[in-house]
Amino acid sequence: MTGEAHSPFIRKLSAFVVLSESELAVLARLHRRRRTFAAGQDMVHQGQSAQTAYILSAGWVCSYKIQPDGARQIVDFQVPGDFLGLRSVLLRTSDHSFEPIVDIEAVEVLAHDLLDAFAQTPRLATAILWAASRDEAMVVEHLVGIGRRDAGARMAHFLLELGSRLALVGMGSKKGFDCPLTQYHLADTLGLSAVHVNRVLRQLREHALVTFRNGRVSFHDYEGLVKLAEFDPAYLDQAGPLLK
Amino acid sequence: MTGEAHSPFIRKLSAFVVLSESELAVLARLHRRRRTFAAGQDMVHQGQSAQTAYILSAGWVCSYKIQPDGARQIVDFQVPGDFLGLRSVLLRTSDHSFEPIVDIEAVEVLAHDLLDAFAQTPRLATAILWAASRDEAMVVEHLVGIGRRDAGARMAHFLLELGSRLALVGMGSKKGFDCPLTQYHLADTLGLSAVHVNRVLRQLREHALVTFRNGRVSFHDYEGLVKLAEFDPAYLDQAGPLLK
User: Fold this and answer.
1) What residue intervals traverse the membrane (chains A, B) (predicted)?
2) Has the ipTM of the complex gone over 0.90?
């Protein structure tokens, strides 16, 4: 077993499948091409056909779409262990852009690397399909949030989801997590103005539910926040490996 | 080669990968358990852990989430060739419900069937990951639509997307397509009231762009509608097989 066995990506896939030594070796070989990107440096441009995906090792990234009128909709954030642009590899053209929020480390994965890995271990294909399904479930929740939740529940749901995702890779707990996002990120994610984001965060703080300050999200009343957001984490499917 | 080689599912995957005889045989074996469901009969309940997915052979299905307050958000529609509940198989609990809009035919696929198929032909795993990525790209577009498009552009984009998806399986063209959806489906999809849906459809008709009447969507000015919606179909990735 190599050092990569403890990468966030492998930790995350292990929530779905108990990986064998040989599967870990295949995954380790996917980790060869290490790259770093500076905060604010676009990685994949919407419309580009690059056929390269990344697995994020350290740092935070946001994926977004720019509408023709210039408005930005943030689709999701990626945290360590997440794929960036898996869709771009398979769909041949990127339907969105990625921007590192802080300096990041990522591993470059080419389409044929993935095909090779799938040929060597089909269970790995299933695990990656699991991760993609989970990503889709998050976008669905995000859609439901914008379509059907009020601003307070939307914000609470978003912070709880991030906390759960980070807990899976050892970077968060029910106490809270470090968070480099700005109020502009939150606004473009939740479909609110920055002023509205400010007001919602103040209300959540005044109700002693959660504080987001100085790069740290602190949950004061985790269960109260769960109740406000009607947050059911089942869609994140983190209850332990299905494939033994 | 069997009759299943011409199923909508195989037609759809063929947009991504040129399937060999042996891959077609593996796919044909996935088509063994045929089921029918009546319109309005729920197939998968939100929160159920069923481990069964379906491939839709004929008819239309809608997937939706009910919020705790009872509001319904339609996440997507499935048309022939689409998976239903692939996420439910992999995520162990269904994050949404499926309801047939008309009487449908579907093939039941169990988790271990998929694993077996992947083991036999890893390229098939990639093709199914492609289909899942495409589904996710559609949810992303839907999110951007609700977050950032006005009602007219949102409706136009939705009808153009359906037309393209149906064209892929031989059921639509730039002239139009048969469509069993009601104005309530459109409202719960686009985050509009039924009255607003009515008004938007009337405006699109009065501008001689598109008519939706008597179960038929008729495009009168396809390019005009594309322009209004700023519709770029690249995310549907239908330009022809990548894997030869």
Assistant:
1) none
2) no
Cα–Cα distance, B225 to B204 (Å, whole number) = 9
* Closest CA relative to residue B64, chosen from B79, B85, B35, B90: B85
Residue A94 lies in a domain: yes
B137 near A CB under 8 A? yes
Domain of residue B181, residue span: 137-236
Query: A30 near A112, Cβ under 8 Å?
Result: no
Q: What is the pLDDT of residues B56-115, one digit of tens each?
A: 999 999 999 887 777 788 989 999 999 888 877 777 666 678 899 999 999 998 877 888
Binning pLDDT at 50, 70 and 90, where does residue A1 land?
very low
Q: Is there a single domain that holds both residue B85 and residue B8?
A: yes
A44 and A100 share one domain: yes
Tell me which amino acid residue B70 is: G
Q: How near does any CA of chain A get to the CA of B165, in Å?
A: 15
Same domain assignment for residues B160 and B70? no
Chain A stretch 162-191, residues whose beta carbon is closer than 8 A to a beta carbon of chain B: 191
Neighbours of B232 (CB within 10 A): 15
- Asked whether B63 and B33 are in contact (CB, 8 A), the reply is no
pLDDT digits (tens, 9 = 90+) for A128-149: 888 888 888 898 888 888 877 8
